[in-house]
Amino acid sequence: MALNTNLVSQTLAAIASVVGDRPSPLHAPVFAGREWEYLKECLDSKYVSSVGHFVDRFEADLAAYTGAKHAVAVVNGTAALHISLLLAGVLEGDEVLLPALTFVATSNAVSYCNAIPHFIESEESSLGVNPQALREYLQRCCEIQNNQCVNKVTGRVIRALVPMHTFGHPGPLDELIALAHDFKIVLVEDAAESLGSFYRGKHTGTFGKLGALSFNGNKIITTGGGGAILTNDAGLARRAKHLTTTAKIAHVWRYDHDSVGYNYRMPNINAALGCAQLEQMPQFIETKRKLFSDYESAFVNVIGIRLHKEPVHCKSNYWLQALVLDEDHAAQHELLLHTLNDAGYMSRPVWTLMHLLEPYKSCPRMNLSSVEGLASRIINIPSGVELLDPSPKLVAQVN
Ligand SMILES: *Cc1c(COP(=O)(O)O)cnc(C)c1O
User: Fold this and answer.
1) How far does the chain reach from its first CA to its final CA, in angstroms?
2) What's the DSSP call for residue 303?
3) Using the 8-state DSSP alphabet, how is residue 381 labeled?
4) List of residues 6+ apart from 88 with CB closer than 8 A
5) pLDDT tens across 81-97, in order?
6) Which of 82, 167, 190, 220 to mutate for ligand 1's pocket (most ligand atoms within 8 Å of CB)?
7) Rounded to the nearest 5 degrees, what angle is found at the Cα of 129, between the Cα atoms of 156 and 345?
8) pTM here?
9) What is the pLDDT of residues 380-397, one digit of tens each?
10) Whole-angstrom Cα distance, residue 83 to residue 244?
């Protein structure tokens, strides 16, 4: 018992030594760049909605930053995932593999395609999909028929695999690419949390056929609400733009639509915010990496808990800092959450695993015992840029 009290009080002290004793949110946005200037420009021009140059600029800036050939800005990350799955060829009645350890948006996007989520294991080292366990599972339960991966149990085609880069840490992409190739499955990345994260020097979200980003208020940069589809395929990018803009055939005054499209286009006013936010990425990443190293030093002598670190060959954006309790200290999880939140350090457990959610209870899944254990030991702690830099200066205005 004395040991347990120790772990909790040492954790509290470690966090206090980094962020001070003021109340600390989990992840607050920072607007220290040209946000006001660009928003004013939007309002003055009256182009606030579906037309305006900030959308084009934000897409070009995103492509340049990520190295993707094309970026299509949309209303949120869920919409980006939905359209990415449709364009990856996911059909009604298909199965889509995704980690049980993710935010509900990944599962919902699969459901919007009338497809069925099929939940898979995660690994402790990257918090991403466990590629060895998945390969063994697919070898057992699937067979290739007509160049498609068929689930022998359900008879359905397993069309796509959607790895998610948890808290910004890149998953094991080399292994997943090989696996997708061997089993004839399309790779679509949920890179909603990993803008600014690189795997072997290449930006996450650019490895699959398509990748989805999110700019929700709690992500590393925000457009209020927003998302983007990344792809290197010009044809897919064109179709993404078309589908997300009501499938309207371009014409000066005529309203012709060639399929059931979606009103998923990002408004100009959100894109204006995005342009200003993206300019600050280098400072954001630098500060978040510094926050990690400060926490790492503070936790070095705390026994029974570790701070999650970027996997080898990766450069992570450290979007959310995560503590992982050792297995023999897992019982402290609940007490830690209470103590940290009571002290004003906003902390939270990882999402309820997908296969435990009411709408997804009966979906197919592999044995998820290790991710169930892992999930019960994770705690996210205050991670925002403002924690180290409470009053960030305006970014130097360069033209
Ligand atoms: C944030 C997030 C999304 C997308 O969320 P939106 O709120 O729709 O932008 C998707 N997947 C994961 C894992 C996320 O964290």
Assistant:
1) 60
2) T
3) E
4) 159, 160, 186, 188, 209, 210
5) 999 999 999 999 999 99
6) 190
7) 130
8) 0.96
9) 999 999 999 766 554 444
10) 8
Residue type, 226: G
Residue-by-residue DSSP string for 44-110:
HHT--SS-SHHHHHHHHHHHHHH--SEEEEES-HHHHHHHHHHHTT--TT-EEEEESSS-HHHHHHH
Q: Please give the distance, rounded to the nearest whole angstrom, from the Cα atom of residue 190 to the centre of ligand 1.
A: 8
CA distance 150 to 381: 41
From 84, 214, 215, mutation site for ligand 1 pocket: most ligand atoms within 8 A of C-beta? 214
> What residue's CA is closest to ligand 1, atom 6?
77
Q: What is the pLDDT of residue 308?
A: 98
3 state DSSP class of 216: coil
For residues 147-159, one letter each, b for 16 or more C-beta atoms within 10 angstroms of the residue's C-beta and e for the rest, the string is eebbbeeeebbbb
Type of residue found at 305:
I
Report residue 228 as tokens: 């983007």
Give me 334's structure tokens: 């609940």
Q: Which residues face 71 on adjacent strands? A: 230
Confirm or reject: Cβ of 106 under 6 Å from ligand 1. Answer: yes
164 in contact with ligand 1, CB cutoff 6 A: yes
Residues β-bridged to residue 211 = 189, 230
Is the distance from CB of 311 to CB of 169 less than 8 angstroms?
Answer: yes
Residue 36, both tokens: 């006001």
Say yes or no: CB of residue 213 within 6 Å of ligand 1: no
Residue 382 CA to residue 294 CA, distance in Å, equals 13
**What pairing do the DSSP bridges indicate for beta strands 321-325 and 378-381?**
antiparallel
CA distance 265 to 86: 16
